[in-house]
C-alpha cells in the first residue's frame, strides 16, 4: 500500500500494519493509505477477518498534534472509524505498547481489541486542553460504563491491559507474539460467524448508569479542574453518550472539540506539550553520555531523602550518607514511612516497597561513595558548608563521576572552582518533595562538560523528571523570578491588602494557592534564613519569624492552623501587626484592587523572565514556562508566564510596569528591553 501502511495475508485473515515511527501517529500520510486498505479489504470476499497492528515499539500512540489548528486533510480519523463500522467481517485491533488518544479511538472502531500484557490504553487529550475528537467519549462508555469512562477521560491517565480486560475494553490479553495471537483470534471469531456488532450499536455499558451518581462525580471533577475548560467538556460529552442517541452525541462531541481546539487554554496546553520536549534538547547530538549505575546522596533530611527516593524509584542503587548514625536512621525511617503511605493509598504494593528499600544503603563514611557515578549534595544552604562537602568528595569520588549540588540559590561556579574537576560539577535543583515534584532545574556551570550535562538531562527523564537546563545566577530561573513576584508582597500588605485577599487573587487566577499560604506551607523560616544571609529584611515576615510563627509546622504563620489542620484561617493578630507596621512607616491604608495585585506581582515576574532571556540564563522563553508550570504552580491553562504575555497583551504589561516604575522608582518595574521588543514583534525570538 505505502511505506507507512502495509497489508499482508495469513490465510484468509488480512493484517494491516501501520509503520510510522516513532509512535505511529495518525498523520495524513498514514490515514490516506489506511482508509484505502480498509475499503479494499472490506470489499474483498476472500478476506474473512481484518487485524490492525503496528510495527515498532507501540500501537498508535495518538493523533499528529502538529496538525491541530490547521485545515484537516481528508480522510480524517472519524471517517476511518466510520468506515471500520461498515465492515461486516470481524475487525480486531492488536494493541502493544500504548493505544492513546486517536490510537484508542481507532481501536474502538474495531469489533474487538486484543492486547499484550504490557499494553496501556487511554485517552489523554484533556492534557492538551481537548477532549477525544474521534468518538472516544461516545464509544468508550458503551464498553466500560459511563463512570469508568468519565474517570479515564477526565484524568487522561492510561490503564493497563489487565484492567482494560476486566472493564470490557479489551477482549483478550496475550503473552508472546501478539500479531500471531490476534490472527488466530480473528480467524476463530470469523469461523464462528456473525453478526459482529460495532461498538456504536452496543449499549450494555450504558444500561446501568446512575445519572445522579455520575453527576456527583462530574461535579467533584469540576471542582478539581480549577478553571480548566477541557475536563468540564469531557464530562459533558460522556454524559451526552448516556442521554443522547449515538449520532447526536457524536455531533455534540465534535462541536465541543472544535470549540476547545480554538481556545486559549488548549493553545496554552499544546504549547507546554512541545515546550517540555524542546527543553530536553541540547546542542551536540553526538555527545557520548556517561554511564550512571550507582548514585550517592549526601544528606538524609527532607530534600536529601526525597532525592534519594527519586533515584530509587527510577531503579538506581542509592548510597545515602549522613554525618551521624542517628541522622541517618532518622532519614531512612522517613523514607520507609513515605513508602508505607504509598502502600496505604494503593499506589505501591508491599513487594514493590521492599524492592525500593533494598536499593538503599546507608552510610556515615564518605569512602562508601567511591563507586558512585553521580553524587548529589543536599546539605545546608551555606557556601562554606557546601565547599567543605565538595572538598571531601574530591578525595573519594572516582574520575568521571558527576558531582552535583542541590542548591537553590548559590553560585555553582564558585563551588566548581573549589575543586580540581570543575568539568564534572553542575547543579541538580530538585523541588520539594523531590520524590513527587516533576521539575528539575539542571544548572550548567561555566566549565561543566557537555557530556556531564547531556548525561544529567537523560538521567532526569529516566527518573520521571521534566528537565530544564539553566545558567548560573542567584536563584537560577525559578527562584529568581519568584523573588521578583514577591518583591511587592509586603508593600501591598502595608498599603492595605490582607494576606487572604492577595491569596484569593492568585487562586482566582488559577494558582493552586497564593504566596502567603505557600510560604506557610514551605516554612517562613526558610526565607528568613536566606534574607539574613543576604543582609535583607522583610518587615512583616521577619517579625512573624521572630515570634516563632513559621507557618503550618508551628500552627501559626500568616494564618492560623487550628489543631494541626492544614486549612488556613485569617489571623486578627497578623492583620493588627500589619496595621501597626504601616502606621510606624507612615503609610495610610487604602483599598487595593485585584488588578493592582496582579500588576504588582505577576508583571514583575514576567519582566524578570525577559531579563533572564536577555542574559542567556534560559535558552528559550518556553523553558521558563516549563519551569513555572511544573515547579511553581503557574496555571497550565495559561501556558506559563511567558506564553501568558501574548494572552494578556505585552503593550498593556509594559504600560503598567512603566506606571508603577514611575510611581515607586523600583527597578523591578523597569521594563526589560526584550519585553519591549516582544511587544513590537510578537515573538520572544526577536531578541536573538
From TrEMBL:
Q: Which InterPro entries match?
A: 3-OHacyl-CoA_DH_NAD-bd (IPR006176), 3HC_DH_C (IPR006108), 6-PGluconate_DH-like_C_sf (IPR008927), ClpP/crotonase-like_dom_sf (IPR029045), Enoyl-CoA_hyd/isom_CS (IPR018376), Enoyl-CoA_hydra/iso (IPR001753), NAD(P)-bd_dom_sf (IPR036291)
Q: Which GO terms describe its biological process?
A: fatty acid beta-oxidation
Q: Name one Pfam family in it.
A: ECH_1
Q: Where in the cell is it found?
A: Peroxisome
Lineage: superkingdom: Bacteria
List the CDD domains hit by this protein, alphabetically: crotonase-like (cd06558)
Per the record, the major location class is other
GO molecular function per UniProt: (3S)-3-hydroxyacyl-CoA dehydrogenase (NAD+) activity; enoyl-CoA hydratase activity; isomerase activity; NAD+ binding
Domain 3-hydroxyacyl-CoA dehydrogenase C-terminal, first and last residues per copy: 475-561, 597-683
Q: Where does the record place the 3-hydroxyacyl-CoA dehydrogenase NAD binding domain?
A: 295-471
Pathway participation: Lipid metabolism; fatty acid beta-oxidation
Gene3D superfamilies found in the cross-reference section = 1.10.1040.50, 2-enoyl-CoA Hydratase, Chain A, domain 1, NAD(P)-binding Rossmann-like Domain
The catalysed reaction is: a (3S)-3-hydroxyacyl-CoA + NAD(+) = a 3-oxoacyl-CoA + NADH + H(+)
Q: Which UniProt keywords apply?
A: Fatty acid metabolism, Isomerase, Lipid degradation, Lipid metabolism, Lyase, Multifunctional enzyme, NAD, Oxidoreductase, Peroxisome
What do we know about how this protein assembles, alone or with others? Monomer.
Alphabetized PANTHER family for the sequence: 3-HYDROXYACYL-COA DEHYROGENASE, PEROXISOMAL BIFUNCTIONAL ENZYME
- Would you identify the family this protein belongs to, as annotated? Belongs to the enoyl-CoA hydratase/isomerase family.
How is this protein named in the record? Answer: 3-hydroxyacyl-CoA dehydrogenase NAD-binding domain-containing protein
Amino acid at each position: 500500500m505505502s511505506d507507512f501502511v502495509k497489508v499482508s495475508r495469513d490465510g484468509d485473515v488480512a493484517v494491516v500494519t501501520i509503520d510510522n515511527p516513532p509512535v505511529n501517529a495518525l498523520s495524513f500520510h498514514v490515514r490516506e493509505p489506511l482508509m484505502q486498505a480498509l475499503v479494499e479489504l472490506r470489499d474483498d470476499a476472500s478476506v474473512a477477518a481484518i487485524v490492525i497492528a503496528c510495527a515498532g515499539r507501540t500501537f498508535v500512540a495518538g493523533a499528529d498534534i502538529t496538525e491541530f489548528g490547521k485545515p484537516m486533510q481528508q480522510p480524517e480519523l472519524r471517517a476511518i472509524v466510520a468506515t471500520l463500522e461498515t465492515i461486516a467481517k470481524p475487525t480486531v485491533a492488536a494493541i502493544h505498547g500504548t493505544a492513546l488518544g486517536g490510537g484508542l479511538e481507532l481501536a474502538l472502531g474495531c469489533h474487538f481489541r486484543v492486547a499484550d500484557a504490557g499494553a496501556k490504553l487511554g485517552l489523554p487529550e484533556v492534557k492538551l486542553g481537548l477532549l477525544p475528537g474521534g468518538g472516544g467519549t461516545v464509544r468508550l462508555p458503551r464498553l466500560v460504563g459511563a463512570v469508568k469512562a468519565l474517570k479515564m477521560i477526565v484524568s487522561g491517565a492510561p490503564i493497563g491491559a489487565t484492567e482494560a480486560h476486566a472493564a470490557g475494553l479489551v477482549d483478550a490479553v496475550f503473552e508472546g507474539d501478539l500479531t500471531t495471537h490476534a490472527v488466530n483470534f480473528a480467524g476463530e471469531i470469523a469461523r464462528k460467524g456473525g453478526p459482529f456488532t460495532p461498538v456504536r450499536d452496543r449499549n450494555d455499558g450504558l444500561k446501568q448508569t446512575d445519572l445522579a451518581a455520575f453527576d456527583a462525580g462530574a461535579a467533584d471533577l469540576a471542582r478539581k479542574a480549577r478553571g480548566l475548560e477541557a475536563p468540564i467538556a469531557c464530562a459533558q460529552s460522556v454524559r451526552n453518550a448516556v442521554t443522547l442517541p449515538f449520532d447526536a452525541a457524536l455531533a455534540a462531541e465534535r462541536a465541543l472539540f472544535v470549540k476547545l481546539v480554538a481556545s486559549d487554554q488548549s493553545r496554552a496546553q499544546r504549547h507546554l506539550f512541545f515546550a517540555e520536549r524542546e527543553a530536553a534538547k541540547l546542542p551536540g547530538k553526538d555527545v557520548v553520555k556517561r554511564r550512571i549505575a550507582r548514585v550517592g546522596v549526601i544528606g538524609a533530611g527532607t530534600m536529601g531523602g526525597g532525592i534519594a527516593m527519586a533515584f530509587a524509584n527510577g531503579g538506581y542503587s542509592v548510597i545515602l550518607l549522613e554525618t551521624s548514625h542517628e541522622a541517618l536512621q532518622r532519614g531512612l525511617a522517613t523514607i520507609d514511612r513515605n513508602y508505607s503511605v504509598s502502600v496505604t493509598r494503593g499506589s505501591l504494593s508491599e513487594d514493590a516497597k521492599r524492592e525500593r528499600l533494598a536499593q538503599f544503603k546507608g552510610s556515615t563514611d564518605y569512602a562508601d561513595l567511591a563507586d558512585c557515578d553521580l553524587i548529589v549534595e543536599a546539605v545546608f544552604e551555606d557556601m562554606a558548608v557546601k565547599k567543605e562537602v565538595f572538598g571531601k568528595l574530591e578525595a573519594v569520588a572516582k574520575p568521571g563521576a558527576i558531582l552535583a549540588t542541590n542548591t537553590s540559590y548559590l553560585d555553582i561556579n564558585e563551588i566548581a572552582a573549589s575543586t580540581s574537576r570543575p568539568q564534572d560539577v553542575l547543579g541538580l535543583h530538585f523541588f520539594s518533595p523531590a520524590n513527587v515534584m516533576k521539575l528539575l532545574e539542571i544548572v550548567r556551570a561555566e566549565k561543566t562538560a557537555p557530556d556531564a550535562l547531556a548525561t544529567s538531562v537523560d538521567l532526569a527523564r529516566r527518573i520521571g523528571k521534566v528537565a530544564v537546563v539553566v545558567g548560573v545566577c542567584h536563584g537560577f530561573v525559578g527562584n529568581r523570578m519568584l523573588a521578583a513576584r514577591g518583591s511587592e508582597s509586603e508593600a501591598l500588605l502595608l498599603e492595605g491588602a490582607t494576606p487572604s485577599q492577595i491569596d484569593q487573587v492568585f487562586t482566582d487566577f488559577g494558582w493552586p494557592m497564593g504566596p502567603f499560604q505557600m510560604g506557610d506551607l514551605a516554612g517562613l523560616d526558610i526565607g528568613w534564613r536566606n534574607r539574613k544571609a543576604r543582609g535583607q529584611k522583610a518587615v512583616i515576615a521577619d517579625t512573624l519569624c521572630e515570634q516563632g510563627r513559621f507557618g503550618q509546622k508551628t500552627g501559626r504563620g500568616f494564618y492560623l492552623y487550628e489543631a494541626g489542620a492544614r486549612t488556613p484561617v485569617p489571623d486578627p493578630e497578623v492583620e493588627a501587626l500589619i496595621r501597626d507596621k504601616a502606621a510606624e512607616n507612615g503609610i495610610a491604608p487604602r483599598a487595593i484592587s485585584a488588578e493592582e495585585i496582579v500588576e504588582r506581582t505577576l508583571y514583575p515576574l514576567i519582566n524578570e523572565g525577559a531579563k533572564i532571556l536577555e542574559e542567556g540564563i534560559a535558552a528559550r522563553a518556553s523553558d521558563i514556562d516549563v519551569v513555572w508550570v511544573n515547579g511553581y504552580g503557574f496555571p497550565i491553562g495559561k501556558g506559563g508566564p511567558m506564553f501568558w504575555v501574548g494572552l494578556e497583551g505585552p503593550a498593556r504589561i509594559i504600560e503598567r510596569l512603566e506606571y508603577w516604575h514611575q510611581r515607586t522608582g523600583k527597578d523591578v518595574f523597569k521594563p526589560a528591553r526584550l519585553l519591549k521588543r516582544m511587544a513590537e514583534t510578537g515573538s520572544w525570538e526577536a531578541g536573538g
